[in-house]
Design goal:
two-stranded antiparallel ribbon, 4 strands
């Protein structure tokens, strides 16, 4: 009997205890305890339903950016243009509904097609012209912002339209509607995490992406067409960023030039904090989701206990540095590990 129990523990329990996600869950629980006690000491109340509703509500837009950024990071690349592409997508959707009187679904399709075009341009710069993804997507972010301002100034004699207000019942449901007690946008977010989690961990495509990021030479020798996969990943990253822009605008019933600007590095930070290696080749969507949950809970918890929001930004940056340091140390150890 003892042998059977030991075998079960080693086979099922021990791998779980050593998994990165388990450590992140423990960290999250510790954070909840700390903020609960801290809030009581300052006369506030962190552990209440409203707080967790705010945490989940604040996850949605950043979640889409985290998924797109996470997939590319696993492949050893980065996308710094997601937020700008998402903002442009939201601006196009709002204009299409309000000024051009397009049906809501046509407006969304147009916004996502525009996002796909920008993603394809990113892929061309990286795969054909061999630009580092950091440089290519940073340039695309600047180009997208400029084009978005030009687009918003068309027909405006007094400059640009920084905000476009629109009204549509279906889009309002996408952003604020509920199925039972659960907001619809949270359901979509969870479905996306599950789908991409399965793709990256259970499919041949995910294995190829992981190998590309972990060992590009081995990926080439294995006959993996890295350029084709990068095309798919960059287009996916841009389209998912566009989806984030759609949900952002749908919730507010407003498209804005500055939409998503505070979310870009949140997505990358959450992915790295969740165990996705900055150097590529490791991590998954489960860890990325918990990393995003930790990051948003940290930010909202700090506001509940009354910490100056500027200090919150400082501490968030320290969290990112901490995650990067751990990632760097683990990469160095893996390189030094003897091969058998």
């Amino acid at each position: 009997m003892n042998t059977s129990k030991d075998t079960f523990f080693k086979k099922h329990i021990s791998p779980l205890l050593h998994h990165k996600v388990f450590a992140l869950v423990l960290l999250y629980i510790a954070m909840l305890i700390i903020f609960t006690v801290w809030s009581k000491l300052v006369g506030a109340n962190f552990l209440k339903l409203t707080t967790f509703r705010n945490i989940l509500s604040s996850l949605v837009v950043s979640a889409f950016l985290t998924i797109g950024a996470g997939c590319l990071l696993i492949a050893g690349h980065i996308d710094l243009s997601q937020a700008s592409i998402g903002a442009f997508a939201s601006m196009l959707m709002g204009t299409a509904v309000q000024s051009w009187h397009f049906p809501w679904y046509v407006a969304i399709i147009a916004a996502l097609l525009l996002s796909a075009v920008f993603g394809a341009l990113n892929a061309v710069m990286v795969t054909k012209f061999r630009f580092p993804s950091f440089i290519a997507t940073l340039a695309m972010a600047s180009i997208t912002k400029g084009l978005m301002y030009l687009f918003s100034s068309i027909g405006k004699a007094d400059g640009v339209a920084s905000n476009i207000n629109f009204s549509d019942k279906v889009l309002s449901f996408l952003g604020k509607g509920k199925i039972g007690p659960i907001p619809f946008n949270i359901i979509v977010m969870i479905v996306f995490f599950i789908i991409f989690g399965i793709i990256m961990s259970k499919t041949k495509f995910g294995v190829k992406v992981m190998l590309m990021g972990g060992n590009p030479v081995a990926a080439t020798l294995a006959g993996i067409n890295a350029n084709s996969i990068l095309f798919i990943l960059f287009i996916l990253s841009a389209v998912i960023g566009g989806i984030g822009g759609v949900f952002y605008a749908s919730k507010l019933q407003q498209s804005a030039l500055l939409a998503l600007q505070t979310n870009q590095f949140t997505g990358i930070t959450a992915a790295i904090l969740g165990g996705i290696s900055f150097g590529g080749g490791s991590g998954g969507m489960g860890g990325a989701f918990v990393g995003l949950l930790i990051l948003n809970t940290f930010q909202i918890g700090m506001s509940v206990v009354g910490v100056n929001p500027f200090w919150v930004n400082v501490f968030t940056g320290i969290l990112l540095l901490f995650a990067l340091a751990i990632d760097f140390i683990s990469q160095q150890r893996s390189r030094k590990a003897p091969t058998l």
